Amino acid sequence: MPETITIIGGGLTGLSLAIALSKQGIPVILHEAGSYPRHRVCGEFISGISPSTLETLGISETLSDAQSHSSITWFSGDKETRKHVLSEPALGLSRHLLDDRLQSIACDLGVKIHTKSRIKPQPGKPGTIWSAGRKPTTGKWIGLKAHVRGITNSSDLEMHTGKSGYLGITPVENGWFNVCGLLKIDRSITARHQDLLPAYLRKNGNLRLAESLENAEWKPDSFTAVAGFELGLQTPDPGILALGDSHSIIPPFTGNGMTMAFQSAETALPHILSYANGELPWYTACERIKKDLHIRFRKRLTSASIIHPLLFLPAASPLVRIAPLNPILNLVR
Questions:
Q1: What angle do CA 209, 206, 200 make, to 5 degrees?
Q2: Lowest mean pLDDT: which of 133-137, 195-199, 226-230, 269-273?
Q3: What is the pTM assigned to this prediction?
Q4: Phi and psi (nearest 5°) for 76?
Q5: pLDDT digit string, tens, across residues 266-295
């Protein structure tokens, strides 16, 4: 009888791993602090994902109707600085829809999903995986996201930069646009709820975009915000296997965050299968997973950490105009 795997965190990594394990006959229990469907702070722009990753995890059908995105327009403040075409298309689909599809597949496969369930992993406990997202810290960033309608876009993805952050706009399903930004926390901003987004954009110098969003239709309950986190490798907790954002958070300008969530599950899958089938001790499986994650993500995390601060320099706008973007983006995907 295979060992039961417990996954704490029902985002992209947790759900896709649960599906892949269940399809291999492994019993899975998944604990999710929230409920489905839900909105999350997320760019909803999946760049660099391969069909083989989706097939390995058994989730190809969930993205079969995702929008294909290739064109990008960059803005600095209110000024357009460059148009660009990706070497390979990205996929666009909301987390609200994608997470709901994944949890439905997992339930149909027999995964026992407990929503509104907040539990802590026990260090060293065999068969327990922590994929509950960012590790709360006193970081300097705030992430803001909403779905809006009634705005015009000049390309599949608009990137709006400024002195304190950047924001991406991309179409998702049913005519909605996902608007998602990463900005430095500014304690002088007193706006609340969805008014936060235009307020931060004005401080960032994106005045026309702020006005456009204020006049747009906002999807009810789609505005979400998250603060207090750091980018890059997350501080590990001894004796706990962390996957997805719990392991590392790549800067969102890369468009690679959702892809890394799936790749994290794919990387861990064979070792967890070996443990569950009695072929590996849990400690050995965890050590092999940590090593493989390091090998798979080291280059892009290092490259992203070098490029990210450059986006906030006054010289960033002319750099975007002349930089070889596809080779640069290939470093972070």
A1: 95
A2: 133-137
A3: 0.94
A4: -115, 115
A5: 999 999 999 999 999 999 999 999 999 999
Instruction: Report the Cα 26 to chain-centroid distance in Å.
Output: 26
3-state secondary structure (DSSP) of residue 89: strand
How many other β-carbons are positioned within 10 Å of the β-carbon of residue 191? 12
Tokens describing residue 186: 């500014």
**1 beta partners:** none
Residue 299 phi, psi dihedral angles, 5° rounding: -65, -45
pLDDT of residue 293: 98
The torsion of the CA quartet 131, 236, 330, 314, rounded to 10 degrees, works out to 110
State how far Cα 156 lies from the chain centre: 18
**Ordered domains of the chain (ranges, CATH):** 5-39+95-136+230-331 (3.50.50.60)
Asked if residue 121 lies in contact with residue 112, where contact means CB atoms within 8 angstroms, the answer is no
What pLDDT is recorded for position 236? 84
CA 140 to chain centre: 18
Q: Are 284 and 139 in contact (CB under 8 A)?
A: no
Burial 257-279 (b: 16+ CB within 10 A, else e): bbbbbbbbbbbbbbbbbebbeee
- Tell me the C-alpha distance between 246 and 25, whole Å: 26
- Give the number of C-alpha atoms closer than 13 A to the C-alpha of residue 151, restricted to the C-beta side: 28
Collapsing DSSP to helix, strand or coil, 184 comes out as strand
Place of tokens 């760049």: 47
According to DSSP, the residues that pair with 76 across neighbouring strands are 79, 161
Tokens for 321?
A: 């105009």
- φ, ψ of residue 233 to 5 degrees: the values are -60, 135
Under 8 Å between Cβ of 184 and 141: yes
| Side chain identity at residue 242, one-letter code | A
Minimal CA–CA distance to 92: which of 172, 186, 17?
A: 172
Contacts for 233 with CB less than 8 Å, ≥ 6 apart: 247, 248, 301
Cis peptide before 309 (omega within 30 of 0): no
Cβ-contact 122, 166 below 8 angstroms? no
The per-residue pLDDT for range 110-126, each reduced to its tens digit, is 999 999 999 988 999 99
